[in-house]
Write a structure and sequence with these properties.
The complex is a heterodimer of chains A (about 270) and B (about 775).
Chain A: E1 5-6, H1 11-19, E2 23-25, H2 31-34, E3 43-45, E4 55-58, E5 61-65, H3 70-75, H4 77-82, H5 84-91, H6 96-101, H7 104-110, H8 118-123, E6 127-132, E7 135-140, H9 141-144, E8 145-147, E9 150-151, E10 158-164, E11 172-178, E12 189-197, E13 203-211, E14 218-219, H10 221-227, H11 234-246, H12 258-267
Parallel strand pairs in A: 1-3, 2-3
Antiparallel strand pairs in A: 4-5, 5-10, 6-7, 6-10, 8-9, 11-12, 12-13, 13-14
Helix pairs in contact in A: 10-11, 11-12
Chain B: H1 17-22, E1 38-44, E2 50-56, H2 58-61, E3 66-71, E4 95-96, E5 102-108, H3 111-120, E6 122-127, H4 134-137, E7 154-162, H5 165-170, E8 174-182, E9 194-199, E10 205-209, H6 214-225, E11 232-235, H7 252-260, E12 267-270, H8 273-279, E13 286-294, E14 300-312, H9 318-327, E15 337-346, H10 360-378, H11 382-389, H12 409-418, H13 420-423, H14 425-430, E16 436-449, E17 458-465, E18 471-474, H15 484-495, E19 503-506, H16 524-551, E20 559-562, E21 565-568, E22 573-576, H17 577-583, E23 590-596, E24 618-631, E25 637-647, H18 654-673, E26 679-680, E27 683-684, E28 703-707, H19 730-742, H20 753-764
Parallel strand pairs in B: 1-12, 10-11, 14-15, 18-19, 25-28
Antiparallel strand pairs in B: 1-5, 2-4, 2-6, 3-5, 7-15, 8-13, 9-10, 9-12, 13-14, 16-24, 17-18, 17-23, 20-21, 21-22, 24-25, 26-27
The chains are: A alpha+beta (about 270), B alpha+beta (about 775).
Chain lengths: ~270, ~775
């Protein structure tokens, strides 16, 4: 093992490395790309720390170990059956190679507004379990990410698990990523929706999150409120889509214009029109 | 060799290099890293147009492990690279003319030291105004890319015409006109430009390089650096892709310059992907304005087109590419009166160069889109319009050359029109799922084979019987993945009636192999294949004659080659090849023969600006149907079906043809769907593979190939080249399908999803 790549077997072995200022690596699919061409600096690989792995039901949450890879999460029945909105994002994340290496914790801490798992996790009201040698704390994902690459992770702290309150089994879960190609493409817009309806098809609760349309993933509270009490018909979804367009701040870049992103962001929910 | 038929292509032949490549045993140029070699790298300009006021190399020289840093002043010879037109400095001297120009060259003991030194070279410039748009570059007041040059920024103007297009246009019942743009395109070969070079003990230069033109490279290097071309040895192992981007100097001259300063040590240079985007050649961006006239029945009458090719600051093969564009302005159609005028223009954009489809891609898109407009105006089916105007054998193309070689464009069109994707399109479109609009489009194409008149398209082939009775083919034309080396084995094995396992291929090496032209222009299998068949014929006669000595046969002609032996059927006796191989001295075990591609014998009185490589005698043909789904909510376009029919004479290797069609169609699909360098004021904004997107396997449907039977009497086993023709279909077919699906008529590519959304919106309004 290279002197520059450390592989602690437990959190207790990790803490001193963090004090040395070693960078955490949870898959490396983003970190190593950003470091290309630079002098190698030490990293602490998290994949051998058992307590950062595992998918289980815990205290009413579905707990996803931060170092589960995208591929391992996709194989897990709890994710596929209870969190299809997340599974949908994992399926189109990167490529098979990226999914085999990248982790959900890494995707969160990278804090890209285009991170594919983020819109689903925002729509699922996910919380994060952060641990350090001094203890643990639990924070909502939405407050944790401050902007591109900026999070509330404190020095000496590591993301241990993602806690997802499972939606009602009857809830509609929907994910769509719009990219410029079907694999290995950064999202131009993505939509995650978790919508609960009553027996008559009237929306009781809607949670809508858009990716790649601002500095962080955006929840759309106005649109969510607008949808509550209505059916998923074309008219309602057009109105809600218009509200969503007003709740985002997209930019122009090489992949798409702000105008395109705004337009599509308001269109995507129409896919659910009954 | 088993005959192939259109319906049952023969897939039985296996490429000899399949296994070695699959298991990683094949040694590419980039795998050749002699122990202790030096590393060379270029400092790139970074700005599109500027006067160099200073190159500060002191800090770079101070980096531990740096051997030397060279600048333009250190280049011996002309310091000009170029294939036909020599205008590209190896190292810039006083001016940089595009952002990828090399300004300094570093030699270092390690890659780390090289990178460090490159980052420490400081360039001082006085910025110069640039020109980034060919038509603006032709304006009188435009900044000059090569000040003092006669002709200013106009590299070349050409005219190819027949009849009187402008007069005939006035007599047409219907005339459509349009302006079309095709973008620069990156080759995205897997293996980057790279090579290794050293000075030998006798002051020769030896190189191993990823190149499509090893024999010509000697002359380009020699001219640029003032060396003797005959003292330069170039070896060209299998390439990890080329597509035209390695036809002409990439690393060659820089490496040779480095070797001159390396004291006999090997020097290696490998471009990164980013450097390849920055400094490598691109498909020329082009703008084409067309007027196309027809009678009310749909019979084409007149074509008048003007093409502008953006050459970047250097000629490379720009003039030749424009010539081919003009020669294909009329496509595979019979048009009595044609006029195609072209302007190849210097700019400060990235350097235009060879790319599969060489000028034809640009011309073809514009013409096919114009045919679509004409079909719409006439209320005709776009396929029927193409079919009724398809060029027949004996008729003259737009350059006035009568098609002697059988043309198969009609058969290609008929094949794709009979395919369920076209024949069943109405039903399929009606079954579109929610939020999807479906459309189907069709296009036809042709692509010339070979260099054309004035530039002999030649190859010499050397074949050796080894002492152990096997055969060694000295391949003189680089195999960049298109499979020509395998095709040569197949041709030779068949000609000598031997099992293909008895053949070994020596890859191009200017010291061991006799000379041949480049791996380009859909010419490789045709020209070298013919030379090889002649060498095989000589070998067969020789082996029979020598076997006759041993078998005591008076008439060698009665002997036959059979697997492993020369046999006398009359007596039942035979002599093993191994025995013959052991019996003969080496000179006697070798046969060399050559072939030059025939040219148009009585060229038409046009295209006078093009002395080299005009006109062409042989063409392959193609037709393509694309079916797509456009998404109403996102404007995204998904290619659902892509069926290509190709007529390329007789099919020698079905697998080989199919793979070329796959690759070409995929590259054509990328061109129309997503590939976009996003260059602005001479800078490429999408200069890596995370921003410049090419299709992944998930973005492409099964790329179906339909074989159309043909026969080129002069071809080896009836073959015509077909490495390029498959690239032309997807762009116009997708454009037509998009118009069919959402009513969007595009005149530039790639497709922008925003335009699709706009079209959907205006259709609803």
């Amino acid at each position: 093992m290279s002197r520059n790549a450390r592989c602690p077997g437990s959190l207790d072995e990790l803490w001193p490395l963090l004090e040395e200022g070693v960078t955490i690596m949870a898959g490396g699919t983003d970190l190593l790309v950003r470091r290309r061409g630079q002098v190698p600096a030490p990293v602490a690989c998290l994949e051998r720390i058992e307590s950062l792995r595992g998918v289980r039901v815990h205290e009413g949450f579905i707990s996803l170990g931060a170092c589960e890879t995208h591929a391992s999460l996709l194989r897990h029945a709890l994710v596929r059956e209870r969190l299809p909105v997340l599974a949908g994002a994992l399926q189109v994340l990167g490529s098979p190679l990226i999914r085999n290496m990248g982790t959900i914790g890494g995707n969160i801490v990278s804090a890209s507004p285009a991170g594919d798992t983020l819109a689903p996790l925002y729509a699922l009201d996910a919380q994060l379990e952060l641990v350090s040698k001094w203890g643990a704390r639990r924070v909502p994902l939405a407050g944790f990410i401050h902007g591109p690459g900026r999070t509330g992770l404190k020095p000496g702290e590591v993301l241990a698990a993602v806690l997802v309150p499972p939606p009602e089994p009857s809830a509609l879960q929907h994910f769509e990523k719009v990219g410029r190609r079907k694999a290995l493409a950064i999202a131009v817009v993505s939509l995650a929706a978790v919508i609960l309806t009553d027996g008559e098809g009237v929306v009781l609760d809607a949670r809508l999150a858009l990716g790649s349309v601002g500095p962080t993933v955006a929840r759309c509270p106005k649109a969510e409120a607008l949808l509550a009490g209505r059916r998923l018909d074309r008219e309602a979804l057009l109105a809600v889509g218009e509200a969503m367009r007003s709740e985002i701040a997209p930019i122009d870049d090489l992949r798409a214009s702000a105008a395109y992103r705004r337009e599509v962001a308001g269109n995507l929910l129409l896919r659910l029109a009954s | 060799m088993k005959p192939s038929s259109p319906n049952q292509p023969d897939f039985s032949f296996r490429h000899a290099d399949t296994l070695s490549k699959a298991v990683g045993a094949e040694r590419y140029s980039t795998d050749f890293t002699p122990p202790g070699c030096l590393w060379a790298g270029a400092k790139r300009a970074g700005v599109p147009h500027a006067r160099i006021t200073a190159v500060h190399v002191g800090e770079a020289l101070a980096v531990d492990g740096v051997k030397t840093v060279l600048t333009g002043a250190d280049v011996p010879g002309s310091n000009l690279q170029g294939i036909v037109h020599k205008d590209q400095p190896v190292l810039a001297v006083d001016t940089v003319r595009h952002a990828g120009d090399a300004v300094a060259l570093v030699l270092a003991e390690s890659r780390e030291a090289l990178a460090e030194a490159l980052s420490r070279i400081r360039l001082e410039y006085e910025p110069l105004p640039g020109v980034f748009e060919p038509e603006l570059a032709l304006a009188a007041e435009a900044p000059l890319v090569h000040p003092g040059r006669e002709g200013g920024n106009l590299l070349a103007r050409g005219l190819v015409d027949k009849g009187d297009a402008r007069a005939a246009m006035r007599g047409c019942d219907v005339v459509v006109e349009g302006e079309f743009e095709t973008p620069m395109q990156e080759h995205v070969f897997l293996e980057p430009p790279n090579g290794t070079a050293r000075l030998t003990a006798t002051n020769g230069l030896e190189t191993v390089v990823s190149t499509q033109a090893p024999f010509r490279d000697r002359f380009e290097i020699a001219h640029a650096l003032g060396l003797d071309p005959m003292r330069i040895r170039v070896r060209a192992p299998y390439l990890g892709g080329g597509f035209g981007g390695k036809d002409g100097a990439t690393v060659q001259c820089l490496l040779a310059l480095a070797a001159l300063h390396a004291g006999g040590r090997w020097v290696k240079m490998v471009w990164s992907r980013e450097e390849t985007f920055l400094a490598g050649y691109k498909r020329h961006a082009a703008r084409v304005r067309i007027r196309l006239g027809a009678s009310s029945s749909g019979a084409l009458q007149a074509l008048d087109s003007v093409m502008y090719f953006d050459s970047g600051p250097y000629a490379h093969l720009g003039v030749e590419i424009m010539a081919l564009g003009l020669e294909h302005a009329g496509g595979p159609y019979m048009i009595p009166h044609t006029r195609a005028e072209g302007f190849c223009v210097y700019t400060n954009n990235p350097v235009g160069g060879a790319f599969r489809g060489f000028g034809v891609v640009q011309a073809s898109f514009a013409l096919e889109r114009s045919l679509d407009a004409l079909a719409a105006r006439l209320g005709m089916d776009p396929a029927e319009l193409r079919l009724m105007n398809a060029l027949r054998t004996g008729e003259a193309n737009c350059a006035g050359v009568a098609m002697e070689s059988p043309t198969g464009v009609r058969e290609c069109l008929e094949a794709v029109m009979a395919h369920p994707v076209w024949a069943g399109r109405h039903t399929w479109k009606e079954a579109a799922p929610p939020f999807k609009r479906r459309g189907v489009g069709i296009a036809a194409s042709c692509n010339a084979m070979g260099y054309g008149r004035g530039l002999p398209d030649a190859a010499a082939a050397k074949l050796e019987l080894t002492r152990t009775g096997t055969f060694r083919i000295f391949n003189s034309v680089a195999d960049m993945g298109q499979g020509n080396a395998a095709a040569f084995v197949q041709l030779a094995a068949s000609a000598l009636n031997q099992d293909s396992s008895l053949f070994e291929v020596v890859q191009p090496d200017t010291r061991l192999c006799p000379p041949a032209g480049s791996s380009s222009a859909s010419r490789t299998t045709y020209t070298f294949g013919n030379a090889l068949l002649r060498a095989c014929e000589a070998m067969r006669e020789k082996l029979k004659a020598r076997a006759a000595l041993a078998l005591l046969v008076d008439e060698p002609s009665r002997l036959r080659l059979a697997p492993g032996v020369v046999a006398d059927e009359a007596t039942g006796r035979s002599i093993p090849l191994a025995l013959l191989g052991n019996m003969l001295q080496r000179d006697d075990r070798i046969c060399v023969d050559q072939y030059v591609m025939p040219v148009v014998e009585n060229p038409p009185d046009t295209g006078k600006a093009f002395r080299l490589g005009f006109p062409h005698r042989f063409f392959s043909h193609g037709a393509c149907v694309c079916a797509l789904e456009a998404d109403e909510l996102t404007g995204q376009v998904e290619l659902v079906e892509c069926v290509t029919a190709v007529e390329c004479g007789r099919v020698l290797s079905a697998r080989g043809v199919e793979q070329q069609v796959h690759g070409a169609a995929a590259q054509g699909a990328g061109l129309v769907l997503m590939e976009n360098l996003a260059h602005q004021d001479g800078r490429i904004l999408a200069g890596d593979l995370s921003t410049y997107l090419i299709p992944t396997s998930r973005d492409l449907p099964d790329l179906e190939w339909l074989a159309v039977d043909g026969d080129e009497p002069t071809g080896p086993h009836g073959v015509k080249g077909m490495g390029e023709v498959g690239i032309h279909g997807p762009a116009p077919a997708v454009a037509q399908a998009l118009e069919d699906a959402v009513g969007l008529s595009i005149n530039r590519i790639p497709v922008d999803p925003m335009d699709v959304l706009r079209a959907l919106r205006s259709n609803k309004a």
